[in-house]
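Form P-L/3: holo structure prediction, ligand adenosine-5'-triphosphate.
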Amino acid sequence: MRYDTGWAQHEEAFLQMNLRVMVKRLPALLASSFRLAWQADRAAARIVIAAELGRGVAQAVNLLAVNSVLARLMTQGSMEARLRGAVPALVTVACVMLVAALLRAASTYATGRLEPKVERVATEQYLERAAAVELAAIEDDAFHKLLDTAQYGAASARRMIAIATRVVNATISLAAAAGVLTVLHPVLLPLLVTMTLPSAWAALTIARRRYRSFHAWVQHARAGRLISSLLTETRAAPEIRVHGVGPFLLRHFRSMSESAEAEQARLARLAARTGLIAASLTGLAATATYATLGGLLLLGAMSLAVAGTAVIAIRTGSSNLNTLVLEVNELHENALFVGDLERLYVKAADWAVPSGGSELPAEPREIRFEKVTFSYPGRDARPALSEVSLSIPTGKIVALVGENGSGKTTLVKLLAGLYSPQQGRIWWDDVDAADAERTRLTERIAMVAQDFKRWPFTARVNIAIGRPGAEMSDGRLDASVAEAGAGDVVSGLPRGLDTLLARSFSGGHELSGGQWQRLGIARAAYRKGRILIVDEPTAALDARAELEVFEKIRALAGSGQTVILITHRLASVRHADLVHVLDAGRLVESGTPEELLNSGGVYAELYALQASQFAEGAPGRGAPGREVPGREAPGREAPAKGVPAKEMPAKGVPAQPSRNGHPTKGS
Ligand SMILES: Nc1ncnc2c1ncn2[C@@H]1O[C@H](COP(=O)(O)OP(=O)(O)OP(=O)(O)O)[C@@H](O)[C@H]1O
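OUTPUT (holo model):
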């Protein structure tokens, strides 16, 4: 299993970066942090910038004031006179320090205020984009990978704010120290740089080693986390206990952790060595610096006061330069992830569900597929639908039938606007669905998908989420529960509709598959789309519940709703007005159930197959395949236990498809 943190892409980008490139890219990175901060909270962004600029100026003034204090103290005269002379400069130092402390407090406050807002803004933008793209984008592996990596972008954007602040501060402080040093003596500036180079080298070396290791160990870390989550996951819990998988997983966890620890120890050893080398070099550079200062003093090229100020300036300057290198380094790391976020924005715009378009007819008479071909993305994918032409008359029950993988679900997803056909058209009367406004199209559709979402919310929300934009209405909720036959499910819940349906939360409750399915149908009923798509609505229902659900579905069609039904239970299909049979992505038969039964094609074959299963399984029946005397058709035999006779399909003599007591065509 791959773990896409995005490090795989970033590692090289980071490792190829040297100090010069980093410095060159710095203004762009600072600008991007500033843009985010500006978007999130302008006032706070202004405070941070003003405070950091002020702190830099304060540092320069402070150094000059210190220089003045030292100069006063080291002049000729009595100590009292010298001290008195130094008082104004000392007062300046104190005032500047006070101002700097206030500015620092202001910057800390504003940065703290900005950080969560920046993360929220970036996360919202990420989620908004992710929710607004086509389903095909979510299923596209490259886009999904970008979604995975970009999710780190928001946290990185947050971190970049504080880092950018420190970079700005260190740059200004460094400029102040460098300026003062240059004024004091031109030779001091190169000395400052020399003193800082070893630790800058060490910081970069250690960081690169860390990333190389991260890249090499990323799958390992992912697998370790996966194992620990498996041990606590609800769905794995029964098997862990019954099959005794716990110790096995724990053993793996330990051995994986131990090898990760060994890698950490290796990195720590190398970091210690690099740090020691850097410290030695810094020591040498410091010795050279102080020797130079001593030489300048001996030669009389520099006064003692200036040398004292120089020492202070070199110390603050080198600490600023060190901070700068480390922070710029970190800024770049985080910028890689923010870059992903920005790439996601661009890609998401390409994949966005289009807005605008023509109106669909208010009451279309039919939806027509005309030579529709659709393939899922992928190199070797054969078309899931090939040149399918069929009609879906509105206000009727239309069943889609076919073996697994024949394209039924794909067809309804195309109808619902989740995918667009690569060839052919889907007509709503004379309007091409491709030109229609998407939201107008989806507004008409209610869908109980095979894998409909079991939202970890209350039962009430699980139903009302069918129309999340509308005010929640109790009357509509009750009606939907009744329509779906979910009354018993709801009344069996400890807190009725207000029961939380998420076992892993306190007070949470879990439903059985069949109970969930009824809530799913209630959700679709709550939505009240003119076209109801039900994909295997009864897969998890018992025989009695199944009958009930089909009764409800028939009633919906009676009220003018179009019902598109996908089911493998052909006994239920006999109530449909029209059946389309798909095979390997092609439409092979269409007609009323009885026409199809009489035609002796794929439908009749599947039907007979199912009917014979009932007959074979029923007590007192003959062995499979054996003729039972007097049996005209399997479906006409006494039903298997729990299946009412009227629901048994009969080969050759189709049951009377009728809705609401009215015979339908073909009956
Ligand atoms: N999201 C997807 N990405 C790629 N291929 C898919 C996807 N969904 C379905 N397919 C492929 O498309 C073909 C048709 O699948 P579809 O789900 O439409 O069949 P179905 O008739 O609804 O099957 P079932 O009765 O098992 O639900 C299958 O070959 C399947 O592997």
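COMMENT: The two ends are 55 Å apart (CA to CA).
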